[in-house]
Amino acid sequence: MYPIEQVEALNPEVTRMVVRAPEIAKKIKPGQFIMLRIDEVGERIPLTMNDCDPEAGTITIIFQAVGATTMRLAQMKAGDALLDFAGPLGNPTELEGAKRACVIGGGLGTAIAFPQAKWLYEHGCEVDVITGFRNVDLVLLEDEIDAHSTRQIIMTDDGSNGNKGLVTQALQQRIDEGADYDLVLAVGPVIMMKFVAATTKPYGIKTLVSMNPLMIDGTGMCGGCRVKVGDEYLHACVDGPDFDGHLVDFDDAMRRGVMYRTFESAAREGRDCNEGEGA
Ligand code: NAD
Ligand code: FES
After folding, report:
1. Which ligand sits nearest to residue 139's alpha carbon?
2. Residue whose CA is closest, atom 21 of ligand 1?
3. Is 237 annotated as a binding residue?
4. Of all protein residues, whose CA lies closest to atom 44 belonging to ligand 1?
5. Which one of 62, 69, 74, 200 has the lowest number of neighbouring Cβ atoms within 10 Å?
6. Count of structural domains within the chain
7. pTM of whole model > 0.70?
8. Assign residue 260 a region: left if phi > 0, alpha if psi is -120 to 50, beta otherwise?
């Protein structure tokens, strides 16, 4: 069992949880994920690491209560324990050698992008972090990012923090100002990553995107997490989760992303999946 040490609501939708898992904490690197299962009847879900403390033997995860499992997870308390917590899975993000990076987080993706920004900053890279949220109440990790970046730009869709616009507008502005990035890393909604990659492509800036399609086994066996990259289908769990943003077929990823919505909403409402949404 994997004891939960801390649980904290970061906003009405998002929870931060610290889990004791010393063997994983020794090995996990930015970009890698774990698969967890609450109990023997629970489904396995992948969650990308937000932070780790090898000395304390803990992993921090941040998740949005959107599905049946994450809603149950958000109800758990310090002192409870998870049945399975397997990892590290996937490949670490390739960050070595970057000198001027821009790390972009869209909504919850900010939590996943944070360890990369922190690693880059701690390894002498100049790091701009651009984050985007629907409104100021949903802003995540402002203090943590401030402490681990050269510059933080927070955008809101409704302008409620005084900075209205999408992350791509802030990115374009920084490029126009001469930011001269050698790496852009984007984590967030697929549509956001698509437009981040479209923004950097004319400038030939290396752009990595973190794909999080549906995952079942997390080991390359089930084929659920296929992502079209160039001419081939790769598996996000074993070949990714990061891919070259200029090669990913984002439209295909968005089509695949809606395929299981009916089953997910049935599971959330405790209905038989075969009843479908309209039943
Ligand atoms: P959201 O829909 O509120 O979007 C967050 C920000 O993304 C917006 O504020 C905006 O700045 C930017 N954005 C959205 N659409 C854009 C567009 N068309 N062009 C440019 N920028 C755009 O995000 P949310 O509701 O917090 O959802 C988080 C999303 O992140 C979910 O879709 C989730 O699946 C995804 N996510 C991805 C990963 C990953 O590893 N890739 C991890 C966690 C979450
Ligand atoms: Fe099954 Fe990737 S999750 S192949």
Report:
1. 1
2. 192
3. yes
4. 109
5. 74
6. 2
7. yes
8. alpha
